[in-house]
Amino acid sequence: MINKQASSLSEAVVDIFDGATVMVGGFGEAGSPIELIHALIDHGAKNLTVISNNTGSGHVGLAALIENKQVKKMICSFPRTANSMVFPELYRAGNIELELVPQGTLAERIRAGGAGIPAFYTATSVSTLLAEGKESRDFNNQKFVLEYGIKADFSLVKCDKADRYGNLTYHATARNFGPIMCTAATVTIVQAKTIVDAGNINPEEVITPGIFVNRVIEVNNPAHESSLVEQEKKYPW
What we know:
Elements: H1 9-12, E1 21-24, H2 34-43, E2 48-51, H3 62-67, E3 71-76, H4 86-92, E4 97-100, H5 103-115, E5 119-122, E6 136-139, E7 142-148, E8 152-163, E9 168-169, H6 178-183, E10 185-196, E11 215-218, H7 223-226, H8 228-234
Parallel strand pairs: 1-2, 1-8, 2-3, 3-4, 8-10, 10-11
Antiparallel strand pairs: 5-7, 6-7, 8-9
């Protein structure tokens, strides 16, 4: 009988290895798998390459993982935001690498990786520093830059509801990068606010089919809905 439920957060991330490439869902705090990230901090895997929309907020979640010096490289669209204090300091000190990718291009690179598409052309970044050293080609008298699909060893994703098969639904904009990241990783690990009995999710409402999910863990009181302040007290790095 298929049952993809992990017994604990630590079990869910136990095989993330040093040097792994890890996609992390979330748009700011919306959809960020904070508890899975903190389980990864406790697990201790280091020299990670992390693919995410941004570099986290404050001193929790992804920002805490970076602050704990477990990340060697960020691939993201927004390395600095109003509440992003950790990454800019480490980057200026030369202690972390950055690959800056426009947001739409990042989403399409992940989607392409999950769909088995090796590369695609886009007009985004033409005639900017981000296009330097990249192959370009003209289509209909317009220049386009070649970008490569991207995959990861692991994806950490947050959803609203899951079943033991790994079928997922999301809450509103907290969906963001979750569905495409689920398709683009060798191992997809999901924290769900609720895990329901098999058959209790209407198939018409499933956003990510279970075939793309390896593990689910129920976290029914996620950090952004309780208190980020309490998380900062727990992880005061």
